[in-house]
Amino acid sequence: MLADLAALRAADLPVHGGRTLAYVYDSGLGAETAALAEAAYASVAGVNGLDMTAFPSVVALENEVVGTTARLLGGTADTVGTVTSGGTESVLLAVLTAREHARATRSVTNPQLVLPVTAHAAFHKAAHLFGLETVALPVDGRTFTPDPAAVAAALGERTALVVASAPSYAHGVVDPVAEIAGLAAGRGVLCHVDACIGGWLLPYARRLPEAAPVADFDLSVPGVTSLSVDLHKYAYTPKGASVLLFRDAELRRHGYFACAAWPGYPVVNATLQGTKSAGPLAAAWAVLRHIGDAGYEELARRTVRTARALRVGVDAIPGLRVLGDPPGSLLAVASDDAKLDVFVLADCLRAHGWYVQPQPGYAGLPRTVHLTVTAAADGKAPELLAALASAAAEARTLGPAVADGQLVEAAALVDPAALGAADSAALLDLAGIGAGGSLPERMAPVLALLEQLPTALAERLLPDVIGGLFRPAAEIRATRQAAPRGGSGGHTAQS
């Protein structure tokens, strides 16, 4: 079975070594830290985090993790928090809490969520799930941050929550949190800071004399009422651990779910999950203790040093530039050369053994490739920059990816709400994403088309793209029945 798993993993991007610049966070500390995390995870594999009265270890672990997080991020004696499964769940809970708070304290029944267009997609998911109207604000084309005056104008009687990012995922820049939070407080509105990706790095980066200044963004800022930070990012814990901090217990109370209206056990949930594994929590607790404050400062130094070297190096490559003024570890690279398409660049760079994340343009913002720099990339900047320069030359030779004009025109006439499965499959086939359970090797043409589609149509087609990767259960059963497996005793037949 383990050999089968290893074979399945062979096509995955590498999660160690610093060559995958999205999705994974590698401290570069080696096997000892990983082994500790795995052992801590395994030690509580049978624990059910649903009921803390049955498993008091969950309470002890969560109190310590939340306390450590609150001390790092400007918490006070009143600060409370919840450990969640990741940034998306933390965001969902922050929005849900704000909706319930606005309903209970201000009688808001048709709430709005005010956020810059650069806020993470998880906020749109939360608005969709919990029935909030989004009020998306433009950002400056140079700083990629929202104008506080625009935030002030958007705040109204229906506003349940205003959002700021520290930093925004797409461009790695920190929004003007102090100004936004102050405006929200002046109107009696809650303010959430999405520090999921930067919350564990920026406090350490601001200690470093060689790092760029980091504006105040945490719970020490007046008006900030909640903050999310993912431990599985720059705290380098295993996937599945995030912390949502609240100003006080009274605010957090609005996010709890309790049910006594059934004949079973009384249910109280602080998260969206019921039954939940204690493994990520225990692993996070162990890794936080193991690395410690001094260890995280050193990891931040390596990360910031590498990010700064990459920023200088990217700006020196003809046709490429880093957008905005990112103070931490995230870089958004754009092209100012019409012959150099960053979508094509990403495809070429992957052939060189590096993965960067292509990001379509939106709301007048340019298409980019995203780089998440971790401590494991320390010392690799020259190698990556050389690969970037080579990939840029190759991309220029290949030319930009251009969406089929006729297909774009035809798509503009499609009503996404009326698009059936057969019509969707036909459109995807024309776009080069047909049946077969796999994506094209080169994604630049697909992304160029996606960028040109109406947003509602793109959102209708994307689930079908991903859904096509998964096979029907009957087909999987037939495949398994045709393939000889192991006999009794758990032994696997060799083929």
Mind sketching the topology for me?
Blueprint: H1 2-9, H2 31-43, H3 56-72, E1 80-84, H4 87-106, E2 112-116, H5 121-130, E3 133-137, H6 148-154, E4 159-165, H7 177-186, E5 190-194, H8 202-205, E6 226-230, E7 242-246, H9 249-253, E8 257-259, E9 267-269, H10 279-315, E10 320-322, E11 330-335, H11 342-351, E12 357-359, E13 368-372, H12 381-398, H13 405-412, H14 421-430, H15 444-452, H16 455-467, H17 473-482
Parallel strand pairs: 2-3, 2-4, 4-5, 5-6
Antiparallel strand pairs: 1-7, 6-7, 8-9, 10-11, 11-13, 12-13
Quaternary class = single chain
Count of domains? 3
Q: For the largest sheet, list the strands in their spatial order.
A: 1-7-6-5-4-2-3
Low-confidence stretches: 487-495
CATH architectural name of the largest domain: 3-Layer(aba) Sandwich
Strand content: 5-15%
- Share of residues in helices: 40-55%
Sheet with most strands: 7 strands, mixed
CATH superfamily of the largest domain: Type I PLP-dependent aspartate aminotransferase-like (Major domain)
What is the overall pLDDT average?
A: 92
What do we call the CATH topology of the largest domain? Aspartate Aminotransferase, domain 2
Distance between the termini: 14 Å
Radius of gyration: 24 Å
Number of helices: 17
The helix-and-strand class reads alpha/beta
What is the CATH class designation of the largest domain? Alpha Beta
Order of helices and strands: HHHEHEHEHEHEHEEHEEHEEHEEHHHHHH
Shape: globular
How many beta-strand elements?
13
